[in-house]
Amino acid sequence: MPTQPQQEKHSIEAWSLINRKYLGKGVRVKRFRKPTRCQIRNRVLLAILMANDIKLSQLAEELGVSSRSVSAWVYEGRIPGKNNLEKACNFLGYPRHILFREELLEKSPLICQPEPSRFMKRTLTRSPVSNRILTGLCMVHDLSVSDVSRWIGVHPGTLRKWLHQGTLPSNAFQEKAESFFRIPRSVLFADCILKTDHQIKAQS
What is the pLDDT along the chain (204 residues), one digit of tens a residue? Predict the structure, then answer.
């Protein structure tokens, strides 16, 4: 049976481990928690929020819902009720089939990432981003522009045009991007498509 000094020693060691784990990391809180891939059901919604630098709590406040509800939309793949769904679509500027596509919410596949990468923040700060879904997905998965371009077989400058200028790639490159991200091209390049549709309506 442990003696009193031994018990106190074990207790001190236990608290020391807890302090190192929880207190030793400082008090700085990131805008987005670092999720594992399997924790994200709605990658598209999270990508749009990250690309626009909108916290989950901010979205909840704007829509008048709880932060827990918004977290469930992102991390559990839940679809909001009719009223909240309409408010979310209006606020973020995307239709339901982009923000809450059922077949994408059923599973969160691992993308075919050949090796570790890291998203380069200067992609956002260098110039305005037009394709926020594609940019946000790079942020969600910590993918650098140079690595993504190499993995899908396109020049980095071309990929940057997709991100910053909203250029719509050829069908062949759309297919490659779709295969890499495991997301339909109609969603990956929705920003480009919606922009073109708005221009056509404005001209007619």
Answer: 555 555 555 565 655 555 555 444 444 445 555 555 447 899 999 999 999 999 999 999 999 999 999 999 999 999 999 999 999 999 999 999 999 999 999 877 777 778 888 877 666 666 788 999 999 999 999 999 999 999 999 999 999 999 999 889 999 999 999 999 999 999 999 998 877 655 545 445
Global pTM?
A: 0.76
Domains annotated on the chain, with CATH: 43-107 (1.10.260.40), 121-202 (1.10.260.40)
| DSSP character string of 91-157 | HHT--HHHHS-HHHHS--PPP---S-----THHHHHS--S-HHHHHHHHHTT--HHHHHHHHT--HH
